[in-house]
Structures are given as structure tokens and as C-alpha cells.
Amino acid sequence: MTKILMTSVRDDEQAAIKEFAKENNVEIITTEKLIDDAVDLTRDVDGLVIQQRSKLPTSIYAKLRENGLKQIATRTAGFDMIDLAEAQTNNLTVTNVPAYSPRSVAEHALMQIFRLLRKAYRFDAQVAANDYRWFSDEQAMEIHTATIGIIGVGRIGGTLAKLLKALGATVLGFDTNPREEMKGIVDYVTKEELLQRSDVVSLHVDLNPTSVGLLTAKDFATMKPSAGLVNASRGPVVNTADLVAALKAKQITAAALDTFEGENEVVMTDRRQTGLGDVPLVAELHSMDNVILTPHIAFFTNLAVKNMVDFALEDVLTVLAGKKSPHEVN
């Protein structure tokens, strides 16, 4: 019987894992540990599925090869935690799950767009302090009167665009590879025009060398002072120090961040006692009443979790059978 090791497994994934094992007659061993601390468990398995944000230690790849593995499947869309050159050197096929549920992230972004347009962050802070007044500068904007700019009109950005269009919003898009089927839903413009015109800018790009620092001080200075920013892509896409400065200088009004620089140190940790002293930029974002932080949970829905498990495990079986997975990234 084929044996597969899955690392960083959460309780909410277990039902899908057990269902897949039963339907496909495979044995799946699970651990809460990162592969960094569980590499010895790969000695007696045929396949490996991981999920983590931190980079794999360089020594991992040779150990996996020595233990007879042929692949690494990450049950995430992002794969920047894997050194593709090292994987290739050690004959390890790498697969990801590029579209586990575009709607899950798109719906989260839509929720945050609404929260920014409705100034929810202001009311949250006031009510938490037992202040039930409302003020002239808290007047909201109805979605059908708003212009929303989407940077990265791929699977997720395109899904968001359709939701926004159905609600009557004007949708602008910037993408290095505009899709013909999105014409009529998205008005493709330059990045500069999108920033100038949008009431909210929503980021949906992959993390790669060209997207790191995609938004910096110059970009925030281009945006409307009344505009908001949503980032449900990856933290390094935004220069956080520049964002903090722009928010303080009122160059933009607010930000809703599901991903942010420094998240690797804080996501899935309990900071109630220790605080955020070791991650000063995150601490600064946390202290601002015009910033909404969520711990990288835009993906976290019933359908997305099942798809991430199923697609990653299917890729393992495909590679082990000597076939080519459509999700290979190296």
C-alpha cells in the first residue's frame, strides 16, 4: 500500500485526509510538525505533502532523495518556500495547488472592500472604547458608486472582478497578461491610472521577483487620500514601512491586510502574553486604528481546505505513477 506523509496538518484537514485515504486505498501519516522537524519520517513513505511559509532548509532535499522520495507536493498556491533548483538537483518533482478555491480569497477580499468603504475599522475602534457617536468623516460609500482597482486579474482577481461587477461597481484592472474573457467586466488600465482612480485597490498577484515591492511610497502618493488598500496576496508585495508612512501621512485612508511582511513570525502564534516587540512593523500596523489585520486566513473555507488536501494528494499519486501532473512547477 502506498504511504504518504503529510506535514503541518491541522485538525480541520483530518476529515478530508481520511476520506481521500479510504477512497484511494492509501495510507496517510500525518504530523503537526514542519518537514524541517519531520524529515526522518520520510524513510518509510513513498510520497510527501507539505504546507508552510518558511523556507525549507537546504539539507532537506538531499535527505528526501536519500530516503527514496521522488516529489514534494505543497498544498498551497505559493511555492516560494521551496528551492526549485535544489529540488531539481535531487530529482524531486515539485507540485502546488494553484486554484484550490479562487472564490474563498475573492470573497474575503470583497468583505474587506466593503469594510473599508463602510469605514468599519473606525466604528470597531469607537465601539470597543464605548464611544457610540458617529461623525461626518465616517460617511460610507455604496459599492455601486465605487471604483475598485484589481492588480493581478488572474483566477482570484478575476473571480473578485465578477463579484464586484455583479454589485454594480466600476472595476479597473492591471495585469501584465490581460485576459480577453475579462473584457466587459474589467477595464484594463495602466497601474498608475488604476491607483489614481480607485477608491479601493485590491492585490491578487503571485509572489515572484517582479512582484516584490510592487507598491511603495511612490505608489501610495499616487492614490486618492480617501482610498483604501486590500492585500490578500503575499506580504512582500507591499513595502510595509512605506505603507505605514502613507497611512500616518494620510496619503491613503486605510488598509485591510491578510498578508503582510513579518507574518511568518506571528501567524499561528499566540501573542497575548509576549506581544509584538520582536516584529516592530507588525506591531505598528497592529496599533493603528485604520488597519485591519487578519492572520492569512482568506483561503480558509470548507471547500478550499478539502481541495487543497485532495489536489495535493492526487498530484503525489500522479507523480508516483510516473505521469506528469499539470501542477508541476519545476
Automatic annotation (TrEMBL):
Span of domain D-isomer specific 2-hydroxyacid dehydrogenase catalytic: 6-330
Q: Does the keyword Oxidoreductase apply?
A: yes
- Family membership, please give it: Belongs to the D-isomer specific 2-hydroxyacid dehydrogenase family.
What's the protein called, per UniProt? Answer: D-2-hydroxyacid dehydrogenase
- ATP-binding listed as a keyword: no
Keywords recorded for this protein, A-Z = NAD, Oxidoreductase
Natural source organism = Limosilactobacillus portuensis
Q: Which residues form the D-isomer specific 2-hydroxyacid dehydrogenase NAD-binding domain?
A: 110-298
